[in-house]
Amino acid sequence: MSEVQHQLLITLVHGTRPPELRAVRFIKWVLDFMRRKRREPLTYWFEEGSSFLTRLCTQLGDIPHKITPILWTGKNSIRARNDAAHSLAEHLSAQHVEHPRATQLIIAHSHGGNIALHALYQLRNPDATQLAWAEGPNPLVVTLATPFVEVHPADFGSNPTYIRCAVIFAVTLLSYYVTSAVFPEVGNPPDRPPLIWLVVIGVPVLISLILWKVWISNGDIARRNRVEALSEATRLGDLGSAQAKRLLIIRAVDDEASLLLAVGTAVNYVTTKSMSYLFWIFSLLPLVLIPVLLFTLPLLHRSALDESWYRHAATVICSAIIILLFALLTAARTVYGRDFAVSSMESQVNTQSTPDAKGLSEIVTLVRRTYVKSLRHSIYDHDDCAKTISDWVRSQLIR
Q1: Does position 28 have pLDDT exceeding 80, yes or no?
Q2: Contact 202, 194 (CB under 8 A)
Q3: For 208-255, what is each residue's pLDDT tens digit?
Q4: Most CB atoms within 10 A, among 44, 58, 104, 213?
Q5: Which residues of the chain form beta strands (DSSP E)?
Q6: Coil, strand or helix: which one is 368?
Q7: Does residue 374 come out as left (phi exceeding 0), alpha (psi in the -120 to 50 range) or beta?
């Protein structure tokens, strides 16, 4: 058979979070010990002896092959995935130099697929490696349940500014109430000691000035640089027909990672819109509400106007809602990577089950027709996964 003559060098790239192997195994050992159960040692899909690699080696059968896993930090971070892509590109280049006639194959799971395609982009980029694309490695790539992520600069008009102003507004008001609570010598402002009055007023003003300087007045260049860095670190490149024909995408139905990213995208949109609207509502509401209260509350309850509790409560509640929405927005953005916790809002994230490409070789959706305990994101546990990879690799080798 012609495919037997090929030497296949397989590189495995895991996804997010398996690096805490020892900690996970220790916790599992403790739980099993407490339950007095003896189970097989925990083996990850990319480790020797795993069920996936056992099935894959059986399916490859007569094709001489060598399997090498690439371990990286596994953090849900674009910077970490970018560093892993650099390491993978260097590994592929060195492997190609040592075995120039061998066929290279990358099998990447979850965000490992983003690492693999970004490594190919770096190999095509003259600044990333000394090898030209025509002379360098041109591996086959298989992605398993990969949520492809790309960051693009975007112009959302004044909405990001409204959101930042809303947060500054809320933090300033809350800091005022906190400092007032710390120094209970309240009374009327003229009755306060000068030093306490300076602290109660100065701390909120100082906080607002710092946030304004960092976020608005001097933040344009820094925000632009962060967006460009994220965009470059997530670039998958232009997958033309030649490279796309060497790419196999295996995905699952209702994959948990894709659903999580979809939820993050929806929450991101809702919170952004809500904060921009709430900023204007909370800014204009006192102008309308206070005159109404001045006329109506004295008729209902005179002490309410004297205590002014309703205004303080409304201010604290509104400020807390804005801050909670901003925290929710930050949490929603971190599903793409922890880098987004401090990144600019002047960016948009594209997440798809398949990348933009011309003439993709094959897209396979593996469906589980029976109930299993494992997550659908763990698609390497699917009975047909190894066979699908093997059949596709054989079709590529005989060309």
Answers
A1: no
A2: no
A3: 777 777 676 666 777 788 888 888 889 887 777 778 889 999 998 888
A4: 104
A5: 8-13, 65-70, 103-109, 140-144, 148-153, 247-252, 347-352, 362-366
A6: coil
A7: beta
* Short-list 52, 108, 81, 76, CA closest to 260: 76
Kindly provide the b/e burial profile for residues 34-67, where b requires at least 16 CB atoms within 10 angstroms of the residue's own CB.
eeeeeeeeeebbbbeebebbebbbebbeebebeb
* Measured distance CA(17)–CA(46) in Å, rounded: 13
Per-residue pLDDT band at 168 (split at 50, 70, 90):
confident
User: Which residue, chain included where needed, has tokens 């990213």?
Assistant: 261
CA dist 376 and 360 (Å) reads 23
Q: Between vectors from CA 46 to CA 42 and to CA 49, what angle results, nearest 5°?
A: 60
* Number of alpha carbons in the 13 Å side-chain half-sphere of residue 177: 15
**CA-CA distance, 290 to 55, in Å (whole number)?**
72
All domains of the chain in start order, with CATH: 2-146+367-397 (3.40.50), 159-228+263-348 (no CATH)
Q: Which two tokens stand for residue 304?
A: 């309410």
Report residue 383 as tokens: 């009975």
Tokens found for residue 121: 């982009």
Helices (H) and strands (E) in the chain, counts: 12, 8
| The length of the chain, given as a count of residues | 399
Q: Which two tokens stand for residue 331?
A: 């949490």
Residue 391 to residue 386: CA distance in whole angstroms: 9
State the angle between helix axes of 159-182 and 309-333 in degrees (0 to 180), rounded to the nearest 10: 130
Q: How far, in Å, CA of 334 to CA of 332, rounded?
A: 6
Contact 199, 163 (CB under 8 A): no
Instruction: Identify which of 267, 161, 252 has the alpha carbon closest to the alpha carbon of residue 212.
Output: 161
For the record, the structure tokens of 14 come out as 């895991």
Structure tokens at 388: 């699908």
DSSP state of 239: B
Cα–Cα distance between 355 and 52 in angstroms, integer?
25
348's tokens: 């948009």
Place of tokens 């400020």: 319
> What is the reported pTM?
0.80
Give the count of beta carbons closer than 10 Å to the beta carbon of residue 89. Answer: 25
CA 19 to CA 30: how far, in whole Å? 19
Neighbour tally for 293: CB within 10 Å: 18
